[in-house]
Amino acid sequence: MSHEHTIQKAINVLVYAFLITATVLSFSGNDNLADIFSSFETYFDPAPWVFTVWTLIYLLLGGFVIYQWFDQAHESALHGVGWHFILSAILNTLWFSLLEGEHKVLSFFISVLQVFSISFVFYKLEAEFPANNWWDRLFLHAPFSLWHGWSVFIAVVTAFVTFTGVKKTEDGTILPPNVLHIVLFYIGLAFLSLTAIGYVEYKGQKGDLTSAWVISFGLWAIFVEQPFVTTHWGALAAAIITTLWPAKPYILRALGRSTTSENAPLLG
């Protein structure tokens, strides 16, 4: 291992430690991520428990920064993930800081950049460094698959925070969404649902189920949080579709029907 490669891996560890520290400090304070999103109030808000996804992402990323030191992960970590883990972590922290400071337009712009950064890793690993064993799936592909789907979901939620808001009566009661908000709501649902389906169908129906299900998890959270008939049941339909679509190969197999997607990987 060259000196340059050692430095890159060491920086990955330091950046991960910084990411964890910043997150712990955030969630132990008064302005954690769930509280910040709740304070903005939109018709696309998810239930606060959706942010528990971060725990799983950070656990798997912790596995990545350890696994990268093993010989079997060397090429994938250096040339598949590269410096984009560092970039994505910095963008993630910057996005949160901007959102906390109510710089909503900038935070949305950063959230989109983060999606592109993680997309580079996601597609690079899929195209050039396929998983050879369960360690690869769990600590190389799964963290970035989960992070990629989650970042897409968060970018859409941030867009609603940036460009929309709720209408209230004088006593603070939230009014039902108007036609414009309903249209925007269903555009957001359609985008996330089609993205989840796209993950499953990626590369000839041998796609990524992890990314699809994390978006589905987010849609369930929106269904739970939104009380209005015009949005509540639409979110339920999207959540059901995006939950069942990744399970399609297993459902067909249980019914005794063959499918070209039954070998779709669960992790990465």
Automatic annotation (TrEMBL):
Entry keyword set: Membrane, Transmembrane, Transmembrane helix
TM region(s), chain numbering: 12-29, 49-69, 81-99, 105-123, 144-166, 178-200, 207-224, 230-247
Protein name per Swiss-Prot or TrEMBL: Tryptophan-rich sensory protein
UniProt cross-references to PANTHER family, sorted A to Z: SI:CH211-161H7.5-RELATED (PTHR33802), XK-RELATED PROTEIN (PTHR33802:SF1)
Signal peptide positions (record): none
